[in-house]
Write a structure and sequence with these properties.
CATH architecture of the largest domain: Alpha-Beta Barrel
CATH class of the largest domain: Alpha Beta
Helix content: 40-55%
Distance between the termini: 33 Å
CATH superfamily of the largest domain: NADP-dependent oxidoreductase domain
Structural class: alpha/beta
Number of strands: 8
Bound molecules: iron/sulfur cluster
Strand order of the largest sheet: 1-2-3-4-5-6-7-8
Low-confidence stretches: 373-379
CATH topology of the largest domain: TIM Barrel
Order of helices and strands: EHEHEHEHHEHEHEHHEHHHHHH
Strand content: 5-15%
Number of domains: 2
């Protein structure tokens, strides 16, 4: 569990805006200051995608990074918009557009974005894995991989098939999700180790949840003589195969705090691990539905509502109501039945290991996510 080379990555997904209602209005002055500070600290990894800020993330990096720094002094990871692919020709079309938006002639890392149960079959159908393998052979991408958003079972299937061509997997990994049955961070990470694949961490502070803790938990970090950000980032950077921990750069203050951690990065100890396990357990006790995410109820549900996923979103949102969590619910209901589709048949009640009144709690989920308009610029 030692990692000597873990660095902080500059996540260009939640950049500061001049108009909060328009994700393309990136605040150039603030981002310029942040890029300069980040580079000056000796870091060099920028993470963007075709989708971030509706394309403006790539173009702002062209203007403020690519045009102002020597190409060999920084690395750029970019991501194919998998959900927009409709034919094999689209692979080339999007890559050409992304190279142009960034103003570069190669990517240091190129990932197939948002691989999950829905988009994996699509990427296979339009031969995106074979396409990125060719990109690497031609030098258009120095490393290739996927950003992954599903359970370990699917990741294993993918690594069995493509593990020999993939260099990198980008994973959601933090101490709250480490043992989660929804995210399965630990299992996913261990699979990457097994296949000797480099891991880039996303969501190390879980969209801000792990740095904006309830007061009683915050107090425990003060007593432990550390900060929530430091511990969360140290946790995310510790496992051996992790090379980069991304942080969504929203302000120069966050960047300074995060870079401080990685300037003097120290892997967590077993004592720290126990401390964080305890925090995670207590955090879970503060949540709205005592679901253990076992998934048994799904097997009984005639509507196939992904109940445990929705309870996890609801719990996370109850503790910390940020739009990125609401966006996860909205994204999932685009491809799966929503909580409001519950017909109150009660078939799930007897199987629930936690004796939860599932239909009643699903009504709370509906109230939380469906009966209010939640704005999100995340894709
Ligand atoms: S009560 Fe609702 S959630 Fe439970 S099995 Fe019936 S439809 Fe599914
Ligand atoms: S059966 Fe109960 S504890 Fe298990 S996932 Fe469903 S609601 Fe959660």
């Amino acid at each position: 569990m030692m990692s000597k080379d873990t660095i902080l990555g500059f996540g260009a997904m939640r950049l500061p805006l001049t108009d909060e209602d328009d994700p393309t209005t990136i605040d150039e002055n603030k981002v310029k200051e942040m890029i300069d500070y980040y580079m000056d600290k000796g870091f060099n990894y920028f993470d963007t995608s075709y989708a971030y800020h509706n394309g403006a993330s790539e173009t702002i990096l062209r203007e403020l990074l690519v045009k102002r720094y020597p190409r060999e002094s920084f690395k750029i990871a970019d991501k194919m918009p998998t959900w927009l692919l409709s034919s094999a020709d689209d692979n080339q079309k999007f890559v050409d557009e992304m190279l142009e938006r960034l103003g570069v002639d190669y990517f240091d890392v190129f990932l197939i974005h948002n691989i999950n149960q829905t988009f994996y079959p699509l990427a296979k159908k339009v031969k995106t894995f074979q396409y990125i393998e060719e990109m690497k052979k031609e030098g258009i991408a120095h490393k290739i991989g996927i950003s992954f958003h599903d359970r370990a079972e699917l990741l294993e299937e993918i690594l069995e098939k493509y593990g020999d061509i993939l260099d990198v997997v980008q994973l959601q990994l933090n101490y709250l999700d480490w043992n989660s049955t929804l995210t399965e961070s630990r299992k996913c990470y261990e699979l990457c180790e097994k296949y000797d694949i480099e891991v880039v961490v996303m969501e190390p502070i879980k969209g801000g949840i792990l740095v904006n803790l309830p007061e009683q938990l915050n107090e425990k970090f003060i007593q432990y003589n550390t900060t929530p950000a430091q511990m969360a980032l140290n946790f995310a950077g510790t496992p051996q195969n992790i090379s980069v921990v991304l942080s969504g750069m929203n302000s120069i203050e966050d960047l300074k705090e995060n870079s401080e951690v990685f300037t003097q990065f120290s892997p967590i100890s077993s004592e720290d691990e126990k401390f964080l396990e305890d925090i995670a357990r207590k955090y879970q006790q503060l949540i709205a539905v005592p679901c253990s995410y076992c998934g048994y109820c799904l097997k009984e549900c005639p509507k196939q509502i992904p109940i445990s996923d929705y309870f996890e979103y609801y719990n996370n949102y109850s503790i910390h109501p940020v739009s990125s969590i609401a966006a996860l619910y909205i994204q999932e209901t685009a491809v799966k039945p929503a909580a409001s589709e519950c017909i109150e048949c009660g078939k799930c009640l007897s199987i629930c290991t936690q004796k939860i009144n599932i239909p009643e709690k699903l009504k709370e989920v509906v109230d939380c996510f469906e009966k209010q308009k939640i704005k999100s610029n995340l894709k």
